[in-house]
Each structure stands twice: as C-alpha cells, then as structure tokens.
Amino acid sequence: MIYYIAHWDWILLQSRAEVVKSLQQNYKIEGIAPLEDNKHLLSDYSQLHDWKINRNKLFDIAGIIDLRKKISEFKHNDLIHLFTLKTLILYLLSSLLLKKQFSVIASITGLGYLFSNTKLSKFLRLIIRPLVIRKINSCVDILIFQNELDKDTFIEFSKYKNRIILIEGSGLNTTNFQTKKSFNKNIKVIFVGRLLKEKGIFEFLKIAESFKHDNNIKFFVAGDLDKGNKSSINDDEFKELEAKVNYLGNIDVPNELFQYDILINPSHHEGFSRVILEAAYVGLYCIANNIPGTRSIINNLGCGNVVNNNDIDTYIKLIKNLDKNIKGFDIEKVREEINEKYSTNAIAIKFSKIYDELC
C-alpha cells in the first residue's frame, strides 16, 4: 500500500490526483488529509482517510496525535509519500518514539513561510531545527526537491544524509487545457495564486497602478485569501486590491486562462511554479521574478522573461514591449517540451521508478 499524506486536501488534488490516476493500474494509493472542500474531487484514490487536523494552526497537537494513530497501524511493507515541508515536519513530530517499519518519501515542493525572512519564521526555524536534525535521517528514506536552491538550503538546515532526487514539477495534465489562438487587442495581464505577500501580490498591484491611465491594458487577479497563512493579506489590503484591479476569485485555469495574454509571477520563492507551466502551455507570455523555481522554466521553455529582484520598472518595460518580445515565442515547441518533461505522465513515470525500488 502507498499512502499519500498532505496537511491540506487541495495538495492531494493538485497534480497528485492526476498522478494517482496514471499509477492506479500498478499501485494501490490511499490519501490521508483533512477532508474539506476537495474531498469529492479525489475519487481516483483507492480510499481516503480524514486527518483530523486544523491546518490553520502552526502546530495542532490533536492533529499530530491523530496522524500518529494512523501511521502506527501501517504495515512493514507499506510506503508513505509526504507532500510539502509542513507535512514532513508534522510527520516527524507524530513519529517521535514510534519505531519506523515502512519506507518514507517526502516531496518538498517549496520551502514556504518557514524559510522566509520574517521574525516569526526565523524563530520557528530555530525551534524546529533540533527536531528535524534528530529525526529526519532515521525517518525519511528519500527527499525529492523541485530545484537546486531549495535542496541546498534544506540539506544545510536538516543535515539530511540519505538519498536525494531532483524532480522538476508535480505533473500537468495537458489534455485539459484550452489554448490561445491570438493575443487580445486590449492586453489582459493576470496574477494567479493565493493572495499572499510572499507570492508577490503587492508587487503586482504596483505594476497595475503604473498602468491605471492606460485603457489598452487591463489587470486581473485570480485567487483566494488564505487567512490561516501568516503571509496572507488582511481585509483592508484586500479592499485596496479590489479597487486597483479586476478581482476574479478562483478561476477554472484549464478553461479560462486562455482569455488572458500575460502572466505575472512576482513570487518571492517557488519550488517549481505550476502556474507558469500552465500559462506557458496555454500560450500566455510569462514574466516572473528571477528565482530558481521560475527561472529554469522560463529559460528552458523560452516562454517569457525573468526580472531581477522583482524590479517594478523592468516589469513595466516588458509589458510595454510585448509585441517585440513575443516574436521569438514558439508556442508549439513550448507545448512539446512541457508534454515531454513536465506532464502528469512524465512525473508518474519518475515516481513509479522510485516506488518499484522501495516496494
């Protein structure tokens, strides 16, 4: 049995549900997560187990105890695949004084808030680090990272000594997407993601503000507030956002993203940006902060430009020069590359090889 574990059912849905669908002929995969809004969309898992944890708390003791009860019932030939750094840390806490009898893989899809530069995150790293160093080598057989910087940063932090694998991306089901045929006469620029400071939402609003007198360019934001996240914007900041841009809420990305022309991703850190892959495949021109989780995608695919240090003036210039920049944009080559390297099937094949070694 393989268990996919995440501290949010949305994580088991995004990409992973499609990977499970690709793998289900050869493996039996069950999901463990707090079953909330996405439960009905996780039908490809053999079975779902409700992890009774409040994901809005930094550390929910009752949730840690509940996970401990679940993993204590696993058999010696089972395999656990953890997703996200937060889930890994919660797992390490739940496994204290519990003898490991099964194989464990952890996919660190990004370093998230814990490795940001806030005072609270620095304090949390200081508190958590001794536990991680003490437990991770005895509890985790394989760590999977999505970029080299995250790998180097976390290995230094954790002193991890076991096997490390680099897999770029979580898998994209490219059969679901409507694609662009042409750019709009009046250019539409979009931000897609949770409304978090570390996702660059304030930088996006500054860019939009600079075009407020230009009727030929419209700015849109798609995504939800995440009030359980320390980086979330507050209610007053959300009202300010609604006054500056067209707020869409959540959108159906595969069926709606093609209506826009430019994706801006000013994120401060990324594991490997899914939304840039989605936008590139659809045919949007992508402009993103120059960080490892975005740089490799844009440079490898030739689907846009990166901006050093989130420089607002550079974003503005690139938007104004869109006609010039898209001349070398070979969308068919981009789609071919994504299908070959980053599709759901490509990721499922890589996971399958790892599972065969451990099962």
Report on this model:
The protein contains 15 helices and 13 strands. It has helices at 9-13, 16-23, 61-71, 85-94, 119-139, 148-158, 201-210, 235-244, 253-256, 274-282, 292-301, 312-320, 322-325, 331-341, 344-358, and strands at residues 2-5, 29-33, 47-50, 79-83, 103-108, 142-145, 163-166, 187-192, 217-222, 246-249, 262-265, 285-289, 304-307. It has 359 residues and is an alpha/beta fold. Helix 7 (201-210) packs across helix 12 (312-320) and helix 10 (274-282) crosses helix 14. The chain starts with a strand and ends with a helix. The chain is globular and about 65 Å long.
Key features?
seven-stranded parallel beta sheet, six-stranded parallel beta sheet, 13 strands, globular
Oligomer: single chain
The share of residues in helices is 40-55%
Low-confidence stretches: none
Radius of gyration from CA coordinates: 21 Å
Largest sheet: 7 strands, parallel
Count the strands?
13
In spatial order, strands of the major sheet run 3-2-1-4-5-6-7
Mean pLDDT over the full residue set:
90
Strand content: 15-25%
Shape: globular
* Class derived from helix and strand content: alpha/beta
Total DSSP helices:
15
What's the N-to-C terminus distance? 9 Å
- Order of secondary-structure elements: EHHEEHEHEHEHEEHEHEHEHEHEHHHH
How would you summarize this macromolecular structure in one to three sentences?
This protein is of the alpha/beta class.
Write the layout of secondary structure elements.
Blueprint: E1 2-5, H1 9-13, H2 16-23, E2 29-33, E3 47-50, H3 61-71, E4 79-83, H4 85-94, E5 103-108, H5 119-139, E6 142-145, H6 148-158, E7 163-166, E8 187-192, H7 201-210, E9 217-222, H8 235-244, E10 246-249, H9 253-256, E11 262-265, H10 274-282, E12 285-289, H11 292-301, E13 304-307, H12 312-320, H13 322-325, H14 331-341, H15 344-358
Parallel strand pairs: 1-2, 1-4, 2-3, 4-5, 5-6, 6-7, 8-9, 8-11, 9-10, 11-12, 12-13
